[in-house]
Recover the amino acids of this structure.
């Protein structure tokens, strides 16, 4: 996602040198042993995206390091604290259009590893959807399904008419990382 975001901002003439943007990444924490899960404990964490780093491999290393460190930190569960109350939720949504703490939202959902069927017909592909919110004009959802990894970028048509640049940037970054992995493996 960082590669796509970097390309989108570069295409708009933004100065990328040293630029770090924040992604709000939805997470689900499970403290139970495998096979004993009692359901999701949804939450989120802020992950810095070092968009100023031009090398996609180094950028991924920096993001992976920060993500691992942040996963070890305690964080409140979604729907806890003031968010348990309708008034707290309304206040948050009222101020969300002017928030400055996050630049991009990314949600990643692990889907079923095997194909699903309806009336005997296989579900061939499954794509996630997430709405744009507040002043976030681009949001990304990722879903794994039966050996696939599918991405959906949803953008506000007026505020982000160049979402295709983001999509091309994501594809380019993934291709660069794939080539790097192949070179390292040989």
């Amino acid at each position: 996602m960082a590669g796509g975001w970097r390309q989108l901002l570069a295409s708009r003439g933004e100065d990328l040198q040293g630029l770090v943007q924040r992604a709000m990444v939805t997470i689900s924490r499970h403290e139970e042993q495998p096979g004993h899960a009692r359901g999701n404990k949804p939450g989120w964490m802020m992950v810095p995206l070092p968009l100023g780093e031009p090398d996609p491999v180094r950028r991924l290393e920096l993001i992976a390091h920060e993500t691992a460190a942040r996963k070890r930190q305690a964080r409140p569960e979604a729907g806890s604290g003031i968010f348990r109350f309708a008034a707290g939720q309304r206040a948050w949504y009222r101020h969300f259009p002017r928030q400055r703490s996050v630049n991009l939202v990314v949600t990643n959902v692990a889907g079923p590893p095997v194909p699903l069927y309806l009336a005997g017909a296989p579900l061939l592909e499954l794509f996630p959807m997430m709405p744009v919110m507040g002043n976030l004009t681009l949001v990304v959802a990722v879903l794994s399904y039966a050996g696939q990894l599918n991405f959906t970028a949803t953008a506000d048509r007026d505020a982000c008419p160049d979402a295709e640049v983001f999509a091309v940037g994501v594809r380019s970054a993934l291709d660069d990382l794939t080539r790097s992995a192949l070179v390292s493996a040989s």
The chain has four helices and seven strands. Residues 163-185 form the longest helix (23 residues). The mean pLDDT is 85.
